[in-house]
C-alpha cells in the first residue's frame, strides 16, 4: 500500500508539471489557477493517505464479542503540566468481553512517550476477545492526543516535549535521574488511580501491568508498588523506576529480583545494544536478562524497530520509521499478529 501511494504521488507531480506547462503556454491563466488549486487539494489528500494509509481493524481470534467504553477520572492533585492549578484528569478506554463469566486478571495498559490511548489497540481487542478486561490509560501531557469529557482535545505538554528533547542520559545522568523520577511519579500515580477506581467499582481483582517504552517502565514499577499486580508485559522499556540515584556518573539500580513474572520484549532498536557500556539506563535489563530466573521471559523480534511493537507501525509506516530509525523488514500486520499472540499466550500461562 505505501509503495503504491508513493508511486501515485510521483505520477501526480509529473502530471501536474506537464499540464501546468501546457496551460501556461496556451495562455489559459484562469484554468491554470483552478488546475493548481485542484492539484494541491488532491496532493494533500494523497499525502494524508501516505502518512496514515487507510487500514481497518485487525480481526480478533477469541471466542467473545467485545465492547468498549471510555470514562474520565479526576485525581486529587494538581496537574504538573497545567499552570492553571487544575486537578489532573485521566482518560481511560475500557475494552471487555461480552457475556463472559471467566475470572481473569485485568490488564492495565500505559502508552509510551507521546503515544496514545490506542497505542496497542489490536492487542487490547485481542485480549478482550479472549476474556480479559483491558484498561487503556491516556496520560495527559505525555500523550500525542488527549480528549477531555467535553470533547475538547489537546496534544502533548511543551514541558514534557522539552524534557524529552533535552535529556542526555549518558553525559548528564544526574539531570536525567531527576526527570525519570518525575515521570515515574506521574505515571505510577495515574495507574494507581485507575486501578483503585476499578477495585472500588468492581471489587478487588488482580492486574497484569502492560506498557510500551515509558509505559512499560511504569508497568515494571507497579509490580514493585502493588501486591495485586501478578505480571508485567514491557514492550522495550528500561527499568526506570529501579534507578535509585547516580554515583560517579553511573546509575545506581535496585537490583532485587521481581517476585512476579516479567515478559520483556525487544526490537532491534534496543536488544543488540543491551550489552554496550554506554547503554547504562538499561543496566537492569541486561542484569535480569543474564539471571537464570524462571519468572523472566525475554523475546527479541528481529527486523523490527521500536515502533514495530505498537500499532503505529501499521497505522503510519512513515511515522513509525521516523521514530524507529528506518522502515522495519517485517510486515506490520504480521508482526502485530505475532506480538499479540505471544503476549496473550504468556498472560494465559502466568499461573
Automatic annotation (TrEMBL):
Domain (Serine aminopeptidase S33): residue spans on this chain: 102-240
GO molecular-function terms, A-Z: 1-alkyl-2-acetylglycerophosphocholine esterase activity
Gene3D superfamilies the record matches: alpha/beta hydrolase
Xref: SUPFAM superfamilies: alpha/beta-Hydrolases (SSF53474)
Membrane-crossing segments per the record: 31-51
Any single biological process term in GO: lipid catabolic process
InterPro entries reported for this sequence: AB_hydrolase_fold, Hydrolase_4
Keywords: Hydrolase, Lipid degradation, Lipid metabolism, Membrane, Transmembrane, Transmembrane helix
PANTHER family with a match to the protein in the record: PLATELET-ACTIVATING FACTOR ACETYLHYDROLASE
Protein name: Alpha/beta hydrolase family protein
Organism whose genome encodes this protein: Pseudobutyrivibrio xylanivorans DSM 14809
Amino acid at each position: 500500500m505505501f509503495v503504491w501511494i508513493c508511486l501515485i504521488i510521483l505520477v501526480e507531480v509529473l502530471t501536474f508539471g506537464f499540464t501546468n506547462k501546457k496551460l501556461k503556454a496556451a495562455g489559459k491563466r484562469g484554468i491554470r489557477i483552478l488546475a493548481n488549486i485542484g492539484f494541491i487539494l488532491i496532493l494533500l489528500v494523497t499525502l494524508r493517505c501516505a502518512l496514515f494509509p487507510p487500514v481497518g481493524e485487525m480481526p480478533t481470534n477469541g471466542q467473545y464479542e467485545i465492547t468498549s467504553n471510555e470514562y474520565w477520572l479526576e485525581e486529587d492533585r494538581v496537574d504538573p503540566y497545567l499552570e492553571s492549578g487544575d486537578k489532573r484528569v485521566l482518560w481511560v478506554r475500557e475494552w471487555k468481553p461480552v457475556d463472559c463469566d471467566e475470572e481473569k486478571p485485568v490488564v492495565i495498559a500505559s502508552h509510551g512517550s507521546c503515544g496514545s490511548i490506542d497505542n496497542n489497540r489490536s492487542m487490547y481487542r485481542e485480549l478482550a476477545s479472549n476474556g480479559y478486561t483491558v484498561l487503556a490509560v491516556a496520560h495527559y501531557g505525555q500523550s500525542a492526543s488527549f480528549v477531555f469529557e467535553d470533547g475538547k482535545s489537546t496534544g502533548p505538554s511543551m514541558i514534557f516535549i522539552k524534557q524529552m528533547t533535552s535529556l542526555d542520559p549518558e553525559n548528564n545522568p544526574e539531570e536525567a535521574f531527576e526527570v525519570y523520577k518525575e515521570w515515574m511519579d506521574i505515571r505510577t500515580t495515574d495507574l494507581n488511580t485507575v486501578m483503585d477506581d476499578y477495585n472500588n467499582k468492581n471489587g478487588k481483582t488482580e492486574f497484569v501491568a502492560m506498557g510500551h517504552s515509558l509505559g512499560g517502565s511504569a508497568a515494571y514499577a507497579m509490580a514493585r508498588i502493588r501486591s495485586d499486580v501478578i505480571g508485567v508485559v514491557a514492550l522495550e522499556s528500561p527499568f526506570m523506576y529501579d534507578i535509585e540515584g547516580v554515583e560517579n556518573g553511573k546509575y545506581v539500580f535496585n537490583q532485587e529480583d521481581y517476585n512476579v513474572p516479567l515478559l520483556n520484549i525487544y526490537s532491534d532498536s534496543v536488544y543488540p545494544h543491551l550489552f554496550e557500556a554506554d547503554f547504562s539506563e538499561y543496566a537492569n535489563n541486561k542484569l535480569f536478562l543474564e539471571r537464570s530466573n524462571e519468572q523472566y521471559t525475554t523475546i527479541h523480534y528481529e527486523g523490527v524497530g521500536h515502533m514495530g511493537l505498537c500499532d503505529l507501525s501499521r497505522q503510519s509506516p512513515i511515522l513509525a520509521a521516523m521514530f524507529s530509525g528506518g522502515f522495519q523488514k517485517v510486515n506490520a500486520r504480521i508482526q502485530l499478529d505475532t506480538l499479540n499472540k505471544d503476549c496473550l499466550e504468556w498472560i494465559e500461562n502466568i499461573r
